Amino acid sequence: MPGRRALLRVPTGATRVAGVIGDPVGHSLSPVLHNAAFAALGIDWVYVAFPVSAGHGAAAVDAMRTLDLAGLSVTMPHKAAAAGAVDRLAPVAARLGVVNTVSWSRATADSHLVGESTDGDGFLDSLAGDDGFDPAGRRCTVLGTGGAARAVTLALGEAGAEAVTVVGRRAEAVAECAALAGTAGHPAAAGTDPVTLREAVAASDLLVNATPVGMRAGDPVPFGIEADWLKRGAFVADLIYAPATTRLLAEARSAGASVRNGLGMLIHQAGRQVELWTGRPAPLEAMSAAAVSALTRGSR
Hints:
The protein is of the alpha/beta class and 300 residues long. Helices cover 42% and strands 19% of the residues. The chain has 2 domains: 2-117 and 264-298, Rossmann fold; 120-261, 3-Layer(aba) Sandwich (Rossmann fold), CATH 3.40.50. It has 12 helices and 12 strands. It has a 6-stranded mixed beta sheet with strand order 2-1-3-5-6-4, with helices on both faces. Helix 2 (30-41) links the parallel strand 1 (16-22) and strand 2 (45-51). The longest helix has 16 residues, at 263-278.
């Protein structure tokens, strides 16, 4: 059984190790995605999950130097700490103040660690590659002001969106997030101005849910948005990938909107990490197949 023998491949002293740090991290799909990528590329690499408790993110990044790890993915709650522990931040990571990827730069004689953020580009890659959607010249609304919302807002602004309206509960956080989209950014504090929310949704070609609302059974639609507010022909993206269909996506699909969950973004941002670490194009089809298989097994 060749497939079974492949699963039993044993790392050696020459095997390169990459991994993800976070707390919690046991649920992460990253090992599935990256190990599928390394196998498809035929390279002797392995990817593991490192549980790292809050307050120890910077030390974990420093351990990358000591252990000569090939690369690190960074998830909550360490993204800001990792940004402060690397030697240099890539431009997008510098603007966001967080990193989700740490890689080696050997452009100079002295090797150093570079912090990157692949979330925003991964979102755009998913829109373009999976759905053929180009945000340039489009009106967009982003729900939420957390790290994912900030990355998406920045990416949409840099991709040439005509307007990016950010919706949140706290006016200060909304304004800070919207500013990342540059002149395209518009704040809308939904907690105090529901009329503005409805107007923004009705005018948007793209609606993005970057909040965790929808992950649990029985969760409502974020911010009480109603499907009949959607613009005809609108595209609705929910960054949640489990469950595969949130209430927001179900209602948007019923209203005739095109929809996409967050699995594509997850795969594409991981693909960008693979390319940063290995210098080779990511095998996205193999990564996608592995992710779908893992999610299918988990839902049984």
